[in-house]
Amino acid sequence: MTIKKWGFGLVLVLLTTILAYLPGLKGNFLFDDFSNLGQMELYGDMSQWENAKKFVMNGIAGPTGRPIALLTYVPQAEAWLNRDAYPFKVVNLIIHLICGVLLYWATRLVLLSYGEVQTRKIQYVALTVAAMWMLHPFMLSTTLYVIQRMAQLPLLFTLLAIIGYLIGRRNIEIHKIRAYVLMSISVGLGTIFATLSKENGALLPLLILVIEFCNPNKMQKPVWQWRAIFLWLPSVAIIAALLTEINFSEHPWPNRDFNQVERLLTECRVVVNYLIQLYIPQIEGYGLFQDGYLISRDITTPITTLYSLITLSILLLAAFLLKNKIPLVSMSILFFFAAHLMESTVVGLELYFEHRNYVAAIFIFLPLALGLYALTDHIKLSVVILITVIIMMFLSFLTHQRAMLWSDDIRLMMYWAQNSPNSPRAQSAKATVFAKDGHVKLAQDILENAIKQIPNDGMLIYQLLQLKLENQTVKKKDFMDTLETIQYHKANTQALLGLRDLIDASIKHPSLVQAHQNELLQIIDETLKNKTYGVNPDFKKLAYFLKGQIYNTLSHPKAAYENYLISLESSQDVEHGIYMSIQLGNQGYLKEALDLLQLTEQIYQKQPKELLKKPQDFYSTRLKQTKADMQKDLLFESESKN
């Protein structure tokens, strides 16, 4: 086959990928989309650079803030306001296709760099690797989950860096200075842009180091000084940073149900599970509800932990033993392990997510592609291509079926919930769907059964109480049952959100607040005693704000003011202060509202300007206008009394 025909094959793969993904573009936003993209609404009109800059530079998704990734969402701000996920998903699909083309190019360059000279083999293997990766259903969740563009962009920059590095490497003997400049820019800028998209982009130098380590061609190898500065030094820095995360104490992460040893053991099973799903694909995996993933408490509990550890050890050993005989296979294995180094080892992240394979799996099908091509020694190339096409058709079918499921977020969540009985979030979502459809009793049964299975989960317990409140079937016993559980809660973010939603639902029914004020306040007081709630730096701000909301609803302005004040002092945030002042003012407690607004203004003067969510002029104007409106209302009220 000519290069032109292989190019046609790549175009055909791209079109097939588009067709496979097409149904899923109709899906809606999910979970973290709202918490991350919702920040756009806080900063105002995104067409104004100052507002957009605030959004881009104040990301909440990770230590870097991920400004490069956030910047790509700004042009679609209007679609977010209209709650239209389609444009976001289209962009994600385009990025996926671009990554597929870059992977094809990068694989060709890897094969050439490793000394492969057969053009037909290079083209076949590169196209097969790229096609399997592009069409694999395991990559769909990363592409169609809008916020996981943050996982796509590090791969985009990583592939560009690999391509630049390998092109430069090929030209070291011909254009030495130009080659080193290209390699330096590729690795340097690639690492910066990848890391500012998502933190695992910092692994880029290590990934290139893996490609270089397995490369049998030493003739065009960069000098050790360059490798030390651009590859070894940043790789050692990342490994050193990960080593500082080691903490074998009993409870290193209060909001997690596992310690570090348990996480490492569980990740053995998780990574093996990734490999199984990559080589034995299925329509839908475990989904986004991973809080119920079975934790490995020791090396034999469950026994699959030991089997997984042995499997990974054999793979790692094989990678080193095969380095000289089959370097490409060795590279694909070590690349997979290296790419998982940050998210699947000692950092206290959740245990399992498919998107962690978006970078790690780019060369994982290289051994399969090489094995398929090896069949040409025994059968015709046309037959091998037919076998390959059948594999691609199978992958396309699975991906298309998965895209159909992802086109309906309600059906998708129900599917996940059905397959994740140990996940509190899954059961919570399931109950929410039934409650919205009017099946309140069924929703209540789901929550009660889930609580029996997961008795210490605050989110489920608060949600059950909230459901009864909203349907006005709540009894004092329901509050007492909730109170009894709080001391045993291992609070997480979902528990905090559940508590907030519970109080928000309560104050919509003032008569119920009046009847159960003591119980509601007791619930918040009990959470303040539970140390696992206090681990969250925003919890004190939330707890006293919620108490203030209750007292405000009960027409106790002094108590409301005192609790709002504690919340304000805890947050040191002007926007939060203005909001609470307005809450008091709306209830007619203008004196207390003005007092709180004055303290808010003092905090505003001290608040670092870079921490402001909106431009200074916005807050200055808002404070001035709110104060003037309240003083006017207070004067009118005084004159009315006279």
What is this structure, in a nutshell?
70% of the residues lie in helices and 0% in strands. By secondary structure, it is mainly α.
Which structural traits does this protein have?
elongated, 642 residues, Serine Threonine Protein Phosphatase 5, Tetratricopeptide repeat, mainly alpha, 70% helix, 0% strand
Largest sheet: none
**SS summary, helix count:** 33
The fraction of residues assigned to DSSP E strands is under 5%
Distance between the termini: 97 Å
Uncertain runs? none
Specify the overall morphology. elongated
Q: Helix share of residues? A: 55-70%
Total count of domains? 3
Structural class: mainly alpha
How many E-type strands?
A: 0
Overall average residue pLDDT: 92
Rounded radius of gyration (Å): 28 Å
Would you give an account of this structure?
The chain is mainly alpha-helical and 642 residues long. It has 3 domains: 3-28 and 85-406, no CATH class; 421-536, Serine Threonine Protein Phosphatase 5, Tetratricopeptide repeat (Alpha Horseshoe), CATH 1.25.40; 565-642. The protein contains 33 helices and no strands. It has helices spanning 3-21, 32-37, 39-43, 49-57, 67-73, 77-81, 86-113, 119-135, 140-144, 149-170, 176-195, 204-214, 224-243, 260-279, 304-321, 327-339, 357-360, 366-374, 381-406, 409-419, 424-436, 440-453, 458-470, 476-486, 493-506, 510-515, 517-529, 531-534, 539-553, 557-571, 574-586, 590-606, 616-641. Helix 30 (557-571) packs parallel to helix 32. It is elongated.
